[in-house]
Amino acid sequence: MVAKFTNSQGELRGMIEEQRRTIVELQTPVIQVWDSILALPVVGSLDTARAQDMTEALLERIVQTGSEIVLVDITGVPVVDTAVAKHLLDTVHAARLLGAEVLIVGVTSRVAMTLVHLGLDLGGVTTRTTLAKGLQFAFARLGIEVLPRSNGTSSHAPNKLTT
Amino acid sequence: MARVPIVRVGATLIATVQDELCDSDVMLLQEELSATLERTGVHAVLLDLTTVQTVDSFLGRLLNDVAAEMRLLGAQTVIVGIQPAVAITLVELGLNLKGVTTALDVDKGMRLLQHSLRVHDLGRM
Question: How many CA atoms lie within 13 A of B107 on its CB side?
């Protein structure tokens, strides 16, 4: 009986360890969405260790790709409290020191309300409600214009770009 | 003792840090920068920290001070080439260098300065 119990406990531990590894692998994708534009989707809650990993991965990629604008997407973050806001701000400030401009996108009305309620302002950080709006801002900043094709017919070909 | 060369290129002073700096080196750099700025009357300073791997609170605070001093002397400072580890350390020390402009490398920094110098010139005309 006792042996059986310890055995299943060991199994459980193994499972937890495996899942933890999966989470670590999943948590910090830094995506290059355009020349000089990176996106960092944050999904799930943000603790100190995760925020540090995220910041390190982001800074490495900024240097690697020579990116000038970073969009941190917090659509997938369920709760933004003081701790999470601090982590986000630390990431923003670190990236800014490298010379990249960071936008926080995916700020929902609930998150905005919480932040105001907590008396936190994301001082000086540009925020947008959606990733698309953030991308528009980034394009404007880099002098890129995305236009529909002049013949007006829609196709699945990518939009014409003028820089 | 590592002396940092200060080079004038057009209307910009470029200081490239080539070695890890001790406190007295940093203070010497600060003095030389303001002296050179006063003598030459340029409007822009570019500080290249690409090779700096470690930073302490003293250097961090001094970077802030240098930028503030340059502003008082009528020049704009751009710090370029801050390494990821250095950036993380500075943030952990609570030094966000709020008033300092940063850029990824010398090239981007120069473009930034040229742009703002143009704006500056237009403002004076």
Answer: 2
CA distances from A39 to A31, A69, A70, A74, A105 (A): 5, 9, 6, 11, 10
Go through the domains of chain A in sequence order and give each one's CATH number.
Answer: 27-162 (3.30.750.24)
Task: Point out which residues pair with B41 in neighbouring strands.
Answer: none
Asked if A78 is an interface residue toward chain B (Cβ–Cβ < 8 A), one would say no
What does the pLDDT average to over B21-36?
86
Provide the pLDDT for residue B124. Answer: 55
Q: Which of A53-67, A114-128, B33-47 has the lowest mean pLDDT?
A: A114-128
- What is the separation, in whole angstroms, between the first and last Cα of chain A? 72
Confidence at residue B67, expressed as pLDDT on a 0 to 100 scale: 86
> How many CB pairs (< 8 A) connect A and B?
54
Q: Which residue of A has its CA nearest to B108?
A: A99
Residue B66 has pLDDT above 80, yes or no: yes
pTM for the predicted model, two decimal places = 0.76
Q: Do B90 and A94 make contact, defined as CB atoms within 8 angstroms?
A: yes
Distance in angstroms (rounded) separating the CA atoms of residues A146 and A34: 12
Judge if ipTM > 0.90: no
| All structural domains of chain B | 6-124 (3.30.750.24)
